[in-house]
Write a structure and sequence with these properties.
Nuclear Transport Factor 2, Chain: A, 4 domains, 10 helices, 33 strands, 11% helix, binds benzylamine, binds copper (II) ion
Length: 705
């Protein structure tokens, strides 16, 4: 039970708060410091450590009022979410500060919950367990000598939930490995036991030991460092460099954290949990600035593993809610994580003492070639009449490391008004020990001698607060449907009639829906009051998403209960300020009884979601049956979804993108065989082989016929 003990509210001091550029900006390092100082001054007698000091998003109505008339409206107050721990006290201190006023608005102890694990919390486990006698004993049983404990490593995971230990203590499970050399990849040498670690007392409180023992593998480590590749024959020598050139720099403008690019304008937020947050996205449609989305972010994810043997049921990481997509974010390297001309944004987080830590280059913003945007040629004059425009895309990205896995998150803006989310998975499989000849049971794949990688899913929750031409929107599900009229009937004589069947959701219950590939199902975020003059249909952005596996853990299972958001592809709820976390605010060690987050907000499902401010929660991802090709390090596996304008623009909004080649029929007749449209020519592309004379190049160029 979540028990709230109301404590002190409203402690005031003179404000010395630094001023932010924009109400949606994440807290700066100076603001984090100032927020920590307010808390420390208010509660000098408490021995507090900080878990979260993060912007509490402004209330939407206040933000929109300010944004519509910034000169006339006061800036929304900077409010700050605090999660702090007090030594020896179970539960978390949850605070809300008004940073502008230098004031504590609320500070209360929430019991029966556990906060996110920070990198600091994770780092303790390995350091401590190496000298714990019961762990050393298990290592020796596994075939590692007691004086080799510096070669023993662990990936610390939150325990998830284990009914033996409940939620009282802050627990981590140590997923154990061995390296014969510090440069080894430990994942080819998993150990078969799992210590349970108390994060606060630094004690190992239990060790899960399997009935069948699996000594540490005697195989060579499966490494991916240069020496290992050398032993396999060395790096390939036939890869020629590809250099990205942007001689005139970038096509986007940056003002603070606001980006303008190709008619789009948006604010790039970032927080410890969701990582990148895209705020207040608008599109300048020939002078009319049209709102598209108020806020889009990755709100949660769950990675359930499919091996039924204890304790593997505990492997179902909520990487955002339990560890934080911001806290785990990488500092990105120029020419490496992103190529071309890059603009970076840093991220600032608190350490346990409330001192700011800055992650340099946490967000990468850059452009890439986007292939052909549109093309048509007329066969009548041997394709001389032709147009071809190439696209450019804007990419806002981050990469976070969730212990073994890397998640690469790309928010991509296209010139036709489409917004895409692409996530690529790389890094290393979570592995476990398997004896020679031992059956996998089908629940995993032997990816290397002595190594099994269990089946699992990566299910993400995308939170979309649409604002299609205004705050009042509806959601409709669209299915390809065939005419009900039989073949031979007047209405469908040839039997070929089909059409898009749109179902507008009225209530929260209506909107609980799953993907249906056979009907090309999609979901439109519509403004029912904005009707397109040609199509007669409402202005919309369509969610096109096909990688939508169902949650495989069964109804009633621990994962099903804890990850309520993942039970369906789409949920829609009425908008509520600061309702961000679909598996609950405090995810570690929730039992799922009751299911937190979305299931609570759904309630009896009768809430109105028609023609109002709504939030669409979309579950997407993939089911991963590991293969040896995923090991020892996984080639990046992409998944992608689109938000596409439909009945929103009068016509193709990218018609004004300068084409690489354009020729009319009359122009082709007049100019004859060889035409170069000088100003648009790509001067860098050239033939790979053979003739390189100027004439030959011109003949094969897209700019000549
Ligand atoms: N994938 C589970 C996890 C994530 C981050 C840190 C530790 C473990
Ligand atoms: Cu995977």
């Amino acid at each position: 039970m979540l028990e709230r003990l109301s404590q002190i509210t409203s402690h005031t001091r003179a404000s010395t708060a630094p001023v932010a550029d924009h109400p949606l900006d994440p807290l700066s390092a100076a603001e984090i410091k100032a927020a920590a100082a307010i808390v420390k001054a208010a509660y000098p007698d408490k021995n507090l450590t900080f878990n979260v000091i993060s912007l509490a998003d402004p209330r939407k109505s206040e933000f929109l009022a300010w944004s519509a008339a910034p000169e006339k409206t006061s800036v929304p107050a900077r409010e700050v979410d605090i999660v702090a721990l007090e030594a020896g006290v179970s539960g978390v201190w949850e605070g809300l500060l008004d940073l502008t006023a230098g004031k504590v608005l609320s500070f209360e102890l929430v019991t029966g919950v556990q906060p996110i694990l920070t990198i600091d919390d994770l780092s303790k486990v390995e350091r401590v367990i190496r000298s714990v006698p019961s762990v050393i004993e298990q290592c020796v049983i596994s075939g590692i000598s007691a004086d080799e404990m510096d070669k023993v490593y662990c990936d610390p995971w939150t325990i998830g939930y284990d009914e033996r230990f409940g939620t009282e203590r802050r627990l981590q499970q140590a997923i154990m490995y061995y390296r014969s050399d510090e440069d080894d990849s430990q994942y080819s040498h998993p150990l078969d036991f799992c210590p349970i670690f108390d994060t606060e007392t630094l004690e190992v409180i239990a060790i899960d030991i399997p009935n069948v023992r699996r000594p540490v593998s005697k195989a060579k480590h499966a490494n991916f460092h240069a020496k290992a590749v050398e032993e396999l024959g060395g790096y390939r020598t036939d890869v020629k460099p590809i250099i990205v050139q942007q001689p005139e720099g970038v096509s986007f403008k940056v003002s603070g954290r606001e980006i303008e690019w190709q008619n789009f304008k948006l604010h790039v937020g970032f927080n410890y949990r969701e990582g990148i947050v895209l705020n207040n996205i608008t599109y300048n449609d020939h002078g009319e600035v049209r709102p598209l989305f108020y806020r889009i972010s990755l709100a949660e994810m769950v990675v359930p593993y499919g091996c039924p043997d204890h304790p593997h049921q505990r492997k179902h990481a909520f990487d955002l809610g339990e560890y934080g997509g911001g806290y785990m974010t990488n500092s990105l390297a120029l020419g490496c994580d992103c190529k071309g001309v890059i603009h970076y944004m840093d991220a600032a987080f608190p350490d346990r003492n409330g001192e700011p830590i800055t992650v340099k280059n946490a967000i990468c913003i850059h452009e890439e070639d986007d292939g052909v945007l549109f093309k048509h040629s007329d066969f009548r004059d041997n394709y001389a009449t032709s147009v071809l425009a190439r696209g450019v895309k804007l990419i806002i990205s981050q990469i976070f490391t969730a212990a073994n896995y890397e998640y690469m998150v790309y928010w991509i803006f296209h010139m036709d008004g489409t917004i895409q989310l692409e996530i690529k998975l790389t890094g290393i499989l979570n592995t476990y020990a398997i004896n020679d000849g031992e059956e996998t049971g089908g629940f995993g794949t032997r990816v290397y001698p002595g190594v099994i990688a269990h089946n699992h899913q990566h299910l993400f929750s995308l939170r979309i607060n649409p604002m299609i031409d205004g705050v009042e929107n509806s959601i409709q599900m669209v299915d390809a449907a065939v005419s009900a009229a039989p073949v031979g009937s007047k209405e469908n004589f040839y039997g070929n009639a089909f059409f898009p069947k749109a179902t507008v959701f009225k209530t929260v219950n209506d909107a609980i829906t799953d993907y249906e590939g056979a009907t090309s199902r999609s979901w439109d975020m519509i403004n029912p009051k904005k009707i397109h003059p040609y199509s007669g249909k409402p202005a919309s952005y369509k969610l096109v998403s096909h990688e939508t596996p169902l949650l495989l853990p069964k109804e009633g299972s621990l994962v099903w209960k804890r990850a309520g958001f993942a039970r369906h592809t789409v949920h829609v709820t009425p908008y509520v300020d600061r309702q961000f976390y679909p598996a609950g605010k405090y995810v570690p060690q929730t039992s799922g009884e009751p299911s937190r987050g979305l299931p609570e907000w759904i309630g009896d499902g009768t809430g109105n979601i028609e023609n109002t401010d709504v939030v669409l929660w979309h579950t997407f991802g993939l089911t991963h049956f590991p293969a040896p090709e995923d090991f020892p390090i996984m080639p990046a596996e992409p998944m992608s979804l689109l938000l596409r304008p439909r009945n929103f623009f009068l016509q193709n909004p990218a018609l004004d993108v300068p084409p690489s080649y354009i020729m009319t029929t009359s122009g082709a007749k007049k100019l004859g065989e060889s035409v170069v449209v000088e100003s648009l020519t790509d001067k860098v592309s050239r033939l790979a082989f053979g003739e390189t004379s100027a004439e030959k190049l011109a003949e094969s160029s897209c700019c000549s016929k």
